[in-house]
């Protein structure tokens, strides 16, 4: 199988079907400076260079920031619709990651305590609810019966 090119294995290539956070944000806001600023402000642990703590560090590490860009001027980007959409997307992804952590925490506690077990069951029901069904139901709930005819 070592010589078979069609073995189904990728040799050294990243095969993830999902866009990286960096590329997803870039598709939403279009500029590298805005992407790095958003990541620094809301999820610095996801930056390629995780040693960045201050805006000066950010500006010094990524040459996409020009001399005229200050932290204050970059904060003004937060009122732009596409930046708000990108921030909301990122925060939603971070929220989902936190919910997964909570799920694991509840699970471990549920093995030891009946009250924690009930909380785990309640949390699980909400956690695994299909979001698309909920969105559809909320849309349908807003439609009057006479509009359906």
Percentage of residues in strands: under 5%
The percent range for helix content is: 55-70%
Write the H/E string, N to C.
HHHHHHH
* Radius of gyration based on Cα positions: 22 Å
Mean pLDDT: 83
Strand count, sense and barrel status of the largest sheet are: none
What does this protein structure show overall?
It is a single chain. 12% of the residues are buried. The longest helix is centred in the middle third of the chain and has 30 residues, at 81-110. The model is unreliable at 1-13 (pLDDT under 50). The protein has 149 residues and is mainly α. 58% of the residues lie in helices and 0% in strands.
Summary, kept brief:
This protein is mainly α.
Essential attributes:
mainly alpha, 149 residues, elongated, disordered N terminus
How do the helices and strands line up, and which of them pair or pack?
Elements: H1 21-29, H2 32-42, H3 55-61, H4 71-75, H5 81-110, H6 114-127, H7 131-141
Helix pairs in contact: 1-2, 1-5, 2-5, 5-6
